[in-house]
Amino acid sequence: MSDTSQVRPTLLYHLYRGASTLLAPFVWSKVAGKLRQHGVAEARVRERLGHATLPRPTGRLVWFHAASVGESLSVLTLIHRLGEAAPDLEFLITSGTPTSADLIAKRLPPRTRHQFPPLDTGAAVSRFLDHWRPDLGIFVESELWPQMLVQARAAEVPLVLLNARLSPKSVANWTKRHATAQFLLDQFTLMLTQNAKTAVNLRAMGADPARLKEGSNLKALSDPLPVDQDTLAQVKEAIGARPVWVASSTHEGEEETVLAAHMALLAQHPDLLLLLAPRHPNRGDQLEAMIAEAGLTSIRRSRDALPRTSTQVYLADTLGEVGIWYTLCPLVFLGGSLRDIGGHNPFEVMQAGGAVLTGPGAYNFAESFAELIGIGAAKEVTSAETLATAVRTWLDEPHALDTARDRARGFLARQSDQMDQTVTALVELLPPRTGEPDDAG
């Protein structure tokens, strides 16, 4: 493994440092304003300047830095596993959004605390590092803040890029700035990618191949969505033996396609129920009118109603109940994908035992869907006709749906095995516990 000193800072990096100093007051004003609007306490707002609001715990500290909600929540399972492997470890999560802070606070694993990250300025980062003195720094997905990386590495903190994922646009931009990309990637002791393609991209950007390893997809191992068992039982009883399929996280412009597919399916399955769970439940009135205009009958979950025998569409216009619908039915179309929106998390469906249908616009999960479709755990649809065909196939051929669900379970099992390898690799980067010989373990 090469010494980080072999790759020198570039002119672009020095320009970035200078610009970040000049722009710091403006950036601080904008960032602090957003946090205050969300009701964040002033002391916590100042965490963005590196002023900690919690003491550093004694012992070895692992620092996770994540971008936002999805990345923050994705590390919780890994923290649990690391805590089991090394019971003395303490953990710090930094993330920049108030929403992520709120959600993490409700799900903090043992010995874990949250702080907002320092702005990427020399003074704020120094203040943060001087207080927390992490023994290992783990950057999740694509959060590459230059001064944070360089100063942490200069402080002899081993750094890991975890669950590395880069969009084609990011790869193209960084490849044009190859020397700077190489310098930043050289700060990492280890880079664990979601898949082989990302490893190829990182090598093209200048990453040292000796430091690259394929790891697990953390989002595939997040805790399953919550399920209220009483509600699940009530809805199950109301549906009875009727066949059902789910269209979840749909967006404006997609429900027309979903309803057209459902109408086509009703010709062969007249008792079929569509459970429609829009991404934004506040569109309930609009969707209720759209369903009626299509000539279909519906009942809304937001009015505490349960589907009747005559109900053709159960409009699940509520928040926090998606886990119930995935547990209820293993045949799920995931929205945000028939239009150029980016798609939604397929692993939440798979963790509930389901198989996934997706449109071609799920670019936020493009690499995952390519693998899932390749192994038969998911299918891609492009229109009302292809959606109806895919749903009909899984309704008429239960063994085909069971096969897809088995492939999904197999995928998750492989991710769990890779997670064990990730935990081992991370523990090996930590300094020994106080009193341990350097060659322990």
TrEMBL record:
Belongs to the glycosyltransferase group 1 family. It is found in: Cell membrane. Keywords: Cell membrane, Glycosyltransferase, Lipopolysaccharide biosynthesis, Membrane, Transferase. Transmembrane segments: none annotated. This is 3-deoxy-D-manno-octulosonic acid transferase. Residues 44-219 form the 3-deoxy-D-manno-octulosonic-acid transferase N-terminal domain. Involved in lipopolysaccharide (LPS) biosynthesis. Catalyzes the transfer of 3-deoxy-D-manno-octulosonate (Kdo) residue(s) from CMP-Kdo to lipid IV(A), the tetraacyldisaccharide-1,4'-bisphosphate precursor of lipid A. InterPro entries: Glycos_transf_N, Glycos_transf_N_sf, Kdotransferase. The lineage of its organism: Bacteria, Pseudomonadati, Pseudomonadota, Alphaproteobacteria, Rhodobacterales. Pathway: Bacterial outer membrane biogenesis; LPS core biosynthesis. Its EC number is 2.4.99.12. It comes from Tritonibacter scottomollicae. It catalyses: lipid IVA (E. coli) + CMP-3-deoxy-beta-D-manno-octulosonate = alpha-Kdo-(2->6)-lipid IVA (E. coli) + CMP + H(+). Pfam families: Glycos_transf_N. It comes from the Bacteria.
